[in-house]
């Protein structure tokens, strides 16, 4: 098996012959072959092959052959020589999303991210975006969105991809039998499909509740807690977080505190403002929570509060953006330190939090030990990613981990997100990490499609 970066050209010829530059013809050891199988995705054609006098690695296809195999565009792409008479062009990588707004925004707010990824993959692979509506299962094709050199979109029908990167934009977009069936069909066809679905907080805790390695870094958590369990955790830890299992961006989160001499306190956000309420006894506190969320208590999680390191009296936590790389290993692509706003329950930027680099945040909290603490947190992030993957039934390629560091330097994981947002990469000092994140996605798609080799 060999891998070569080659340049694909289209000609006006009407014949069905594949022309290869002499050097590529010789490197593929085709001197005694009269015919060659060429694959793109799941489409295969067989055609006579001839060498032409041209330096470099070039492939020339007639319009007839191009249409038959559905090659989307000319230019550089990898050629995988898997058997002596077969080569595969690609990989063909589909980015699954939704959220159509207009022809210039076919994926809504996800459009710019998908565009960046397609541009990065240009001259290496055939990247395209698509929605569930664009699949024709009968023909095994996808009417995908490709990019012109000027950044505008065009549609092209291609075979089912070699790999699918799932970036459906919301829990709502990926619920329902249609999406469940879509995922299963890709898997049944042997097409790697990574980032299966959004996580619920409770699901992650259940996944890891018997993983000894992971439990060392997980706060005590109870899903669908009874009033008595909330009381037990409050009396044991003195403060807890009460949060919806399927929430995001800090919505619906309470910080509950118990002071033996002062009573019970609930801090939360309401109407864009931070609210702090005091209760004389536990029953009063629970009456308010039941009045606001009584019907959805089963979908809530109560979690041990951790005394995090602080700057200016405001706690810090850290978003670790994790990726699988080209060797199928978990790596940290970027880290954002998030400082809570004054009086806020969470560190979310929309709730008054601010974004810092991990170096600047940790140097203010751990001084000369900052680098050592950061390296420890990176090791824990990799360990927790491996633990989630080990216990999760579907393929993962990307995770967003919310980690906290307490005043002793111990590292805790509060949440894991299967489709993390990319807001940390908006920080001017994290643009390089944002680029690295995209490159890891490309690398991992090459790995999953077997398009890896010395030339890659």
UniProtKB/TrEMBL annotation:
The keyword ATP-binding applies. Keywords: ATP-binding, Nucleotide-binding. It holds the Pfam family ATPgrasp_YheCD. Residues 371-446 form the ATP-grasp domain. InterPro entries: ATP-grasp (IPR011761), YheC/D (IPR026838). Gene3D superfamilies: ATP-grasp fold, B domain. Coiled coil: none annotated. One of its GO terms (molecular function) is ATP binding. This is ATP-grasp domain-containing protein. It comes from Paenibacillus herberti.
């Amino acid at each position: 098996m060999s891998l070569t970066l080659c340049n694909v050209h289209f000609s006006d010829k009407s014949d069905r012959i594949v022309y290869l530059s002499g050097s590529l013809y010789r490197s593929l050891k085709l001197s005694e072959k009269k015919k060659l199988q060429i694959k793109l995705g799941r489409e295969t054609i067989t055609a006579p092959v001839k060498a032409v006098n041209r330096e470099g690695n070039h492939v020339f296809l007639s319009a007839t052959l191009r249409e038959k195999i559905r090659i989307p565009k000319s230019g550089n792409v990898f050629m995988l020589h898997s058997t002596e008479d077969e080569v595969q062009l690609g990989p063909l990588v589909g980015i699954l999303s939704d959220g159509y707004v207009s022809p210039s925004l076919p994926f809504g707010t996800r459009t710019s991210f998908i565009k960046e990824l397609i541009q990065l993959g240009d001259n290496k692979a055939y990247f395209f975006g698509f929605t569930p509506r664009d699949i024709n299962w009968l023909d095994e094709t996808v009417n995908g969105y490709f990019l012109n050199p000027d950044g505008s979109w065009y549609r092209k029908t291609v075979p089912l991809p070699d790999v699918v990167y799932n970036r459906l934009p919301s829990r709502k977009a990926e619920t329902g039998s249609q999406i469940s069936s879509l995922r299963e069909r890709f898997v049944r066809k042997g097409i790697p499909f990574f980032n299966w679905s959004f996580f619920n907080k409770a699901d992650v805790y259940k996944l890891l509740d018997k993983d000894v390695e992971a439990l060392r870094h997980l706060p005590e958590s109870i899903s669908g807690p009874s009033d008595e369990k909330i009381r037990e955790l409050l009396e044991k830890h003195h403060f807890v977080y009460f949060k919806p299992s399927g929430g995001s961006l800090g919505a619906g989160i309470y910080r509950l505190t118990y002071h033996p001499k002062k009573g019970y306190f609930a801090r939360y956000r309401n109407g864009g403002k931070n609210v702090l309420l005091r209760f004389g006894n536990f029953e009063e506190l629970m009456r308010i929570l039941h009045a606001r969320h009584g019907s959805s208590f089963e979908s809530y999680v109560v979690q041990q509060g951790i005394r995090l390191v602080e700057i200016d009296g405001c706690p810090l936590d850290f978003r670790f953006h994790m990726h699988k790389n080209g060797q199928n290993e978990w790596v940290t692509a970027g880290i954002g330190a998030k400082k809570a706003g004054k009086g806020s329950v969470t560190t979310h930027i929309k709730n008054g939090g601010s974004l810092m680099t991990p170096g600047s945040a940790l140097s203010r909290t751990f001084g000369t030990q900052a680098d050592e603490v950061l390296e420890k947190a990176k090791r824990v992030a990799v360990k927790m990613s491996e633990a989630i993957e080990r216990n999760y039934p579907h393929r993962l390629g990307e995770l967003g981990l919310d980690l906290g560091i307490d005043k002793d330097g111990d590292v805790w994981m509060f949440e894991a997100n299967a489709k993390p947002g990319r807001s940390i990469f908006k920080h001017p000092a994290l643009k390089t990490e944002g680029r690295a994140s995209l490159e890891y996605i490309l690398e991992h798609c090459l790995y999953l499609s077997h398009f890896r080799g010395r030339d890659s």
